[in-house]
Amino acid sequence: MDKRTLIDDALSDPGVLIVFGGLPGAGKSTIAEALAAQIGAVHLVIDRIEAPLKARLGADIGPLGYNVAYQVATSNLDLGHVVIADCVNPIAMTRNAWMSVAMGCQAKMVQVNIQCSDLQEHRRRVEKRLTERPRQGLPDWQSVQARQIDEWPEADLTIDTYMRTPDESVSAIVSALRRLAPSRFGADPFARGVMGSG
C-alpha cells in the first residue's frame, strides 16, 4: 500500500472529538498533552486560545475563546483527525456546544471528566502553577473554588487524578477509547498508526 492510499484511508475515517472538563489545577492539561502525544491527536487548549484574545480585548471575552475552539475543532474533525478539547467545560451549555460540533462533523464524541478528590492536593497544584507561571493570568485557589461547575452525568469516563498518576490516567482513557470508538481505536490500533508509541 503506497503513501497516498494510507493518507486517503486515514482521511476517510470519521473524526473523534475527546472533550475534557474539570476545574483548573485538576490535571487536565497534563493528561491531555500526554494523550495527544500517544495517539497523535490535535490538542486544543482553551487557555492558550484565550490568552492573546484577553491581551488584546481585556479579561472579559465571554465565550469568544470557546467559539474559536469550536471552529478549529470542526476544521480538523472534517479532515478525520482526532481532536482533544482541553477546557474547564463547566456547564451544560458548553458541553452541548461540543456535542453540536461532533454531530455536525459526524464525529464520535468521548467526554472525560477530570477531578482531584483531595482538596489539599488540588490547592497545592493551583498555588504551584501560580508560582511557576505568575504572568499567565491563572486563577488562584479562591477563584477556583468559586467556579460554577455543573454535574456531568453524561461523561463517558471520570478520572480522579489524586488516585491515578498521569500515565495511569492516559491508559484508562485509551482503554475507554478502544471501547467507545472501536472503529478508530480497535484492539490493534498500532496496525494503522492511529496510536504512536509516544
UniProtKB/TrEMBL annotation:
Gene3D superfamilies per the record?
A: P-loop containing nucleotide triphosphate hydrolases
Q: Which InterPro entries match?
A: P-loop_NTPase
Q: Which organism is it from?
A: Dinoroseobacter shibae (strain DSM 16493 / NCIMB 14021 / DFL 12)
Matches recorded under PANTHER family: OS07G0160300 PROTEIN (PTHR37807)
Descriptive protein name: Kinase
Could you tell me which Pfam families the record lists for this protein?
AAA_33
